[in-house]
Amino acid sequence: MVSVLEEPRKKKLGEIFLEKGLIAKDQLEEALFYQEKYGGRLGWILSTLGYIKRVDFVKVLSEHYNLEFLLGVENIIKLIDEDLLNAFDPLELSKLELIPAKEEADTILILTSNPDSLKLKEFVDRHFKNYKIKQIAITDLDLVKTLETIFKDKYIDITVNGLFYLTPYYSASIVFSKGQVLFMAIVLYVFLIGLYVNAIFTLSVLMLLIQLIYVSSILFKFIVSVAGAKSEMTQYITGEEVSSLKEKDLPVYTVLVPVYKEPEVIHILIDSLKNMDYPQNKLDVILLLEEDDEITLKAAKENKPPSNWRFLIIPNSIPKTKPKACNYGLFFARGKYLTIYDAEDIPEKDQLKKAVLAFKKGGERYICFQAALNYFNANENFLTKMFTLEYSYWFDYLLPGLFNLNLPIPLGGTSNHFDTEKLREIGAWDPFNTTEDADLGVRAFQRGYKVGVINSTTYEEANARLRNWIRQRSRWVKGYMQTFLVHSRNLKRLYKSVSFKGSMSFMLLIGGTPFTFLLSPWMWLMFIIWLLIKTQIFQPIFPSIVLYLAIFNLLIGNFIGIYLNLLAVFKRRLYNLLPYCFLNPVYWLLHSRASYKALYELFTKPFYWQKTQHGITKHKIDLFTSS
């Protein structure tokens, strides 16, 4: 290989910035101190600190290396031989920050936003060992836009169908398999025949099955929560461990921020990430926007995020979902690790460091660590209070319990921290699943990876309006239904991949949750009718064993639900929410309303993404500064 750089360097990078008047001497000294502490490229540090523009950084970089500088996608594309470029994987080119543009005699023209990098040299050694190399410097944004322009169809295809190509049996693009349709038809047929032959016996058996499902679901959640309570005595990652981290050794960390028409909250996350206890030059933040969302793009630009933020416009295609946007962003992720934050999220400052430590301590089997989610507007109204109780229980007890018992963990929609390469390996998110996070957690477990939890919290905006809450919850429940249908298509494969206890956990949590939501109103209706008019009409279908189970579910089941909320109150010291724990049955009935909406959409528009409106809280938001 002929040397990548053909002329000696004449000046140091910092000297050129000073000579051009782009920075002051004290800014250079600050950047050099920052470089000494955190490592990284000086120009990129200056850019992420907001002292120079991205374009000026690359211009100076090209001068530093005696390279030509080219600006603008239109100018760049004129230089490219698409036949040559199409021979390469666009994912690899994006990661390496280079484009092999064309071949001229014995010379290869390479466009790069990172001249003289070790990765570039390795790429040249692999593909163009006997060629001379000519480099042209371009900005990282122009590089991404060029790749998007040339590989647009390929990006969209893999974004939408990548999981289906890799493992079609895990894709929710098929709602019901032929086997599932046949099974449901047989069950319905047997039930109707049973009603015709002996209606009382048939309905008694049905009631017995319903009560058994209820009691199994209740006891399962109680046992898992008791296992999760052990985590109160343990900090997975201690403050001392965070303080002892060598910040020079911290890897690049990608943060995906999928948004859609949320201009009113985008500033929250920008401010939060600026305050994160993580080197800004090692944060790779990608804002994922839809083509028709100019208002959020405008709001993001007006908030003037630093140069480590990139804006990606997702090409318009069906389905229009958050997981599709995340898949698209994954193409351009530079980080060793990756997380997702919603636009209104406020993660604790040291969360990324805790995730890095968790991966180091956990070992190679871990693909993801889930941080806890909670709400900054808990006291706004009844809905936000119940939502806070629910999330406190779910993330403080249920998920740690699943982790402690080595069971599949349905991930939350944000603050899940991934090993980027392992995420790509399993096909990333299913764009057809409306609860893509829960599906991904189950699928990762099936592929032999482990999902853990970390003791860090991200604060979000709890839904304060009922209609908005119903839309959001119906999407989540529909996704649970989709996930259950996907992974129950082949029970033998499920059993082999997650074991018997993992299969039962999946059935009771992913399948049992929407099932109990759908049945609850009918059970309450029968109880209320009996309570008010003392009718004996239900007595024949409630023989002794069914009646005892129903009473257990009514009394003990609701008590356990209330008790689990009480645990959350004391763990988070949310003592003002104590009276609301006793309203848990009312909150469950709201879930039932959302679940029937979800069931209807499962048949009519299974991939439709019910948008949740954010920025409607009246609560004043303060950034959290500590763990």
Topology:
Blueprint: H1 13-19, H2 25-38, H3 42-48, H4 54-64, E1 68-69, H5 73-78, H6 82-85, H7 90-96, E2 98-104, E3 107-112, H8 118-127, E4 132-137, H9 140-150, H10 152-166, H11 178-229, H12 239-243, E5 253-258, H13 266-274, E6 283-290, H14 294-302, E7 309-314, H15 322-330, E8 337-340, E9 346-347, H16 351-362, E10 366-375, H17 382-404, E11 416-419, H18 420-425, H19 436-446, E12 450-460, H20 466-487, H21 491-533, H22 544-572, H23 584-604
Parallel strand pairs: 1-4, 3-4, 5-6, 5-8, 6-7, 10-12
Antiparallel strand pairs: 2-3, 8-11, 9-12, 10-11
Helix pairs in contact: 3-4, 10-15, 11-17, 11-21, 11-22, 17-22, 19-20, 19-21, 20-21, 20-23, 21-23
Please tell me the total number of domains: 2
Q: What is the strand content?
A: 5-15%
Give the rounded overall mean pLDDT.
89
The CATH fourth-level homologous superfamily of the largest domain: Spore Coat Polysaccharide Biosynthesis Protein SpsA, Chain A
Question: What is the CATH architecture term of the largest domain?
Answer: Alpha-Beta Complex
How far apart lie the N and C ends?
A: 50 Å
What helical percentage do the residues reach? Answer: 40-55%
Main sheet overview: 8 strands, mixed
Cα shape: elongated
CATH class category label of the largest domain: Alpha Beta
- How many β strands by DSSP? 12
> DSSP helix count?
23
Rounded to the nearest angstrom, the radius of gyration is: 27 Å
CATH topology of the largest domain, which one? Answer: Spore Coat Polysaccharide Biosynthesis Protein SpsA, Chain A
Low-pLDDT segments: 1-9
Structural class: alpha/beta
Major sheet strand order: 7-6-5-8-11-10-12-9
